[in-house]
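Methods: holo model generation. Sequences were used as deposited, without trimming of termini or removal of tags, and paired with ligand SMILES retrieved from the corresponding compound records. Each pair was processed once, and we did not select among multiple samples. The sequence and zinc ion SMILES for this entry were:
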Amino acid sequence: MAQIAGACRFVYNLALEQRRDWWRPGRKFNSVSQCREVTELRAQVDWIKAAPVAALQQALRDLDRAYQNWWAGRADYPTPRKKGFNDSFRFPDPNYLTLRRTGKSSGQLKLPKLGWVRLRGWRALPGDLRNVTVSRRAGQWFAAIQCEREIPEPIPSSLPSVGIDMGVAVFAALSDGTSIAPANHGKKALRALRKAQRALARKRKGSANRRKAVRRVARIHQRVANARKDFLHKHSTTIAKNHGTVVVEALNLRNMSASAKGTTEKPGRKVRQKAGLNRAILDQGWGAFRIMLAYKLADRGGRLVEVPAAYTSQTCSACGVVDSASRVSQAVFACSGCGHTANADTNAAINILRRADSALKPVEGHRVVRPGEAGTSRSAA
Ligand SMILES: [Zn+2]
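and the model returned the structure below.
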């Protein structure tokens, strides 16, 4: 599996280099032309021939997607894949994939070139198998199985609406006055991580002990990621179960978590503070939280609505006066106009909820799952 991931990485990087360095007017490269070249390459190079051709072609598709994301302004220019980072490969054709159960919590997956591979754990597929992505995380190999199924159109939800203000001090404040405390998984694990990283720095390059230390660091990252995912799933499920419409601020996460350093022409200000905030933002996983909310609501006939974020924290939810002086502290809002006092985050959440009535704007960029396109289509692979 490491060899297949290596061949896919090699082809990806080669194709990236070709597109980046050998582009000329009238000499265009795309995944179609590059797929043809991979076929020629396989005839000449044995270790590339040893990798399944479909997986290599998928790597070229991934590169195509990376370029599309760059053109659309959603991502930076594609960078080469590195060994040991997101090692993965994908089999796109369900005709060459078979899944079978072998025990109470075990199964087998038949993959091209690899044959039958044992699986630890078993879950029945909720639909028809579409494709399989094999990836390595913290030294373990995982199979992600994508399924497709028809689901009936959900009945539009009649549950109450709620506004959510997301923050760093409080993970999420709801307009009904409740709030979710931040979990700060990354912060808690930081000490263990620092210790593991220091131990790693002392190990000799290429030694077995170094390999072990690398794995230890990766495991801590993995544990943090799992805990965060669990936290986000729990809270997004509770909110989606109890509400029909959920209103959130339209945040540009990409800009917010962009490097605070800026560029050489435009050096950033307050670099240290911003770096801390950026870590906090990424730690919270707001982006993932919204995506979870969007599909969990859609499944239940609800919806997620994004509204412009400007002044929601400075507006009085009782009289509507906008004044930055009303926000007396991180936690307290006291209106300079009418004297109304409230929890600052709850006040903002109420404003966010109200804003949805004035200018309804459905979420853009999030994959809202609609009936008929349930699961995801193969083109998403
Ligand atoms: Zn007021």
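Residues 254-265, 359-381 have pLDDT under 50 and may be disordered.
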